[in-house]
Specification:
mainly alpha; 3 domains; 5-stranded mixed β-sheet; 25 helices; 5 strands; 5% strand; globular
């Protein structure tokens, strides 16, 4: 005790000195990743219109928050999103921003979720996995939409962490948390959440089988499955808590008792998706979309699988990730109702396996006299040459697009593009031999592969932005099948201007709409309580504002009307792509034929209303 110096015994001059705040470099990196991920997800999120499915789920919550809203009550498919929407609309009001903001935050958390396993994976591999998720176009596009799949994968990662912690510590709270995560994925979040739970269970069984079939001697103590702990799983405490969670979330903490029916709707929709594909989507869409948008992850994932199968020592987590990938692919092919957002089923295990290979490239050594910056110098040079090759390849792809399929000999390719590609390839080869002779073959190969990876990751960010913003209403984009048109914003703005002119800004505008009361048009009319959804155009005779399908040309509305047509959704048949047109479509989304409106609506204004001579207030 005599050696302990109290604060009063510290010299006064030392007490006046401020403590030095030290910030580690990895903290700065993660802060930068968070800011970049948040900006990419929030920017222009209120500009991109809701899809028909998003609008349906948003209306389900809005009509509970605002009972005066026109239209019948809708049973939501996701109790969790229903609760989040209700909370957001109660505070922020109904908008595209408030609809998606919670999912945006969940997407940022999903990018950072590998930090939960930093002690298991190591700091380097964890950082690489975070970067892969941050640059993934699938993760970016899905987290900018109001998709429950983001929540499913986030809860799945938290559940895996809880299971790992229970395996280590045996504390019952981790077992209860794991049970809650599994129950939430099945009953609260996503209709297809059972598929994710099943893939994780099968991956765990595969891990046990793989270890027992490849280990001839007793496994190390740290890999022994503590079967006693799993026999002591606190089922008696976990299940009542899980049931209470489902009841409270689905009923908005008993504020909306009818919300419990959303659990049944979720299960019914999930079972329906087993045999029924989604409209406008080809079979195996999730698998095809992953190949289309994540080719680098597939290549690196295949390399990681090969490395695991041929390695003598494989960690427990890599065995699990291998099983997760295998069963995720199989179940994505079996489940008929997959969409673009279900690419995350494959992207997460692919990214985790790819981080294994990339970590080896980063850590791998070369000759003892090779400087540490050598591989990164090679990576920068290769990345610049890859950019040069990409520019010329895209020019060639555009030339192939205009070439008839039967006349390949007539292709008109600029010789400068071919020369540019040849020069870039020669520079890569020459640089490889120079770097091999100076720093060793291992450094040259690793630096070259890292350069390609960095180039692909940077371009993937741009690809994700194009998917979710620039081409959000473009049906030529493979991700967006039958997307909502940006023209819907014009229709809503016109209605708002009419309301401002006729009712001094109050939402008393009377509208008759021949459209589904749970679709995009209904969402555009969400804050016009005097909207009437009709089933026959004759019911709108004499009304001031009438919305009718554009297929009804010059309807008989009992007077003179002025009409304006806007597209609600766009469509395009991707089967029209030929072999020579595919490179331009894949690289730049360029096609000979563009998308066309698949669903349009015409707003008819009575002539006196159009002239502004009669107020549009319901009598």
């Amino acid at each position: 005790m005599d050696s302990i110096q109290s604060f009063d015994q510290v010299p006064s001059e030392n007490r006046l000195l401020p403590r030095r705040l030290t910030i580690r470099g990895e903290v700065v990196i993660y802060v930068g990743i968070v800011l970049l991920a948040l900006v990419l997800r929030i920017a222009q999120i209120d500009v991109v219109p809701l899809s028909s499915h998003e609008a349906q789920q948003a209306l389900a919550a809005w009509r509970v928050v605002y009972p005066e809203a026109a239209g019948s009550l809708i049973v939501p498919e996701s109790p969790l999103l229903f609760a989040l929407h209700t909370m957001a609309y109660s505070v922020l009001g109904p908008s595209e921003f408030s609809t998606r903001i919670f999912t945006v935050l969940a997407g940022v958390l999903l990018v950072l979720s590998p930090l939960l396993f930093s002690r298991l994976l190591g700091k380097t591999r964890t950082l690489i996995l975070v970067l892969l998720l941050a640059c993934s176009p699938s993760v970016l596009a899905t987290s900018r939409a109001d998709s429950p799949v983001i929540w499913t994968m986030l809860v799945a990662v938290v559940g895996l962490w809880s299971l790992w912690r229970y395996r280590e510590t045996g504390h019952s709270r981790f077992a209860i948390q794991t049970t809650l995560c599994a129950v939430a994925m099945v009953f609260l979040i996503d209709p297809a959440g059972i598929v994710v739970v099943l893939s994780l269970i099968l991956a765990g069984l595969f891990t046990i089988w793989y270890r027992s079939s490849t280990t001839e001697e007793e496994p190390p103590l740290d890999e022994v499955v503590p079967e006693g702990r799993f026999r002591a799983w606190p089922w008696a405490a976990a299940f009542p808590i899980a049931l209470l969670m489902v009841f409270l979330v689905s009923t908005l903490f008993m504020l909306y008792p009818a919300g419990v029916s959303s659990v049944g709707e979720l299960l019914s929709t999930g079972l329906h998706g087993l045999t029924t594909p989604r409209p406008y989507l080809p079979p195996f869409f999730a698998f095809l979309a992953t190949l289309f948008y994540e080719p680098m992850l597939f290549v690196m994932g295949v390399a990681a699988v090969f490395g695991i199968l041929t390695s003598d020592e494989v960690s427990l987590q890599d065995r699990f990730l291998l099983g997760w990938l295998i069963f995720s692919i199989l179940l994505s092919l079996i489940y008929a109702g997959t969409g673009a957002e279900n690419t995350l089923w494959l992207v997460l295990p692919l990214a985790a396996l790819s981080s294994r290979i990339i970590t080896e490239l980063v850590r791998g050594g070369g000759r003892f006299f090779a400087p540490r910056w050598s591989r990164w110098f090679i990576a920068v040079v290769v990345g610049m040459l890859m950019a040069m090759i990409s520019v010329h390849v895209q020019s060639i792809a555009r030339a192939l697009m205009t070439t008839p399929e039967v006349s390949l000999q007539q292709v008109n390719i600029n010789p400068q593009n071919l020369i540019g590609i040849v020069i870039a390839v020669l520079l890569i080869l020459i640089g490889y031999f120079l770097a091999s002779s100076e720093w060793g073959e291992g450094v040259a190969i690793r630096g070259g592969v890292l350069g390609v990876l960095v180039f692909v990751m940077v371009t993937s960010l741009g690809n994700g932005w194009h998917i979710s913003v620039d081409n959000a209403d473009n049906a030529v984009e493979f991700w967006s099948r039958n997307p909502t048109s940006y023209q819907t914003a014009q229709l809503r703005q016109t209605l708002i201007e009419l309301s401002n002119r006729q009712t001094s800004g109050f939402p008393e505008l009377a509208v008759s709409a021949l459209a589904p009361d749970d679709g995009v048009v209904a969402w555009l009319l969400r804050d016009f309580p005097n909207t009437t959804f009709i089933t026959d155009a004759t019911a709108a005779k004499g009304q001031g504002v009438v919305l009718l399908p554009s297929t009804m040309d010059k309807p008989d509305l009992g007077g003179a009307y002025v009409g304006h047509t806007v597209a609600i959704s766009n469509g395009w048949d991707f089967r029209s792509i030929g072999l020579l047109n595919f490179p331009a479509w894949w690289l730049q989304r360029r096609t000979l034929t563009g998308d066309l409106p698949s669903d349009s609506i015409t707003m008819w204004l009575r002539q006196d209303i159009y002239n502004g001579t009669k107020p549009l207030v319901p009598q």
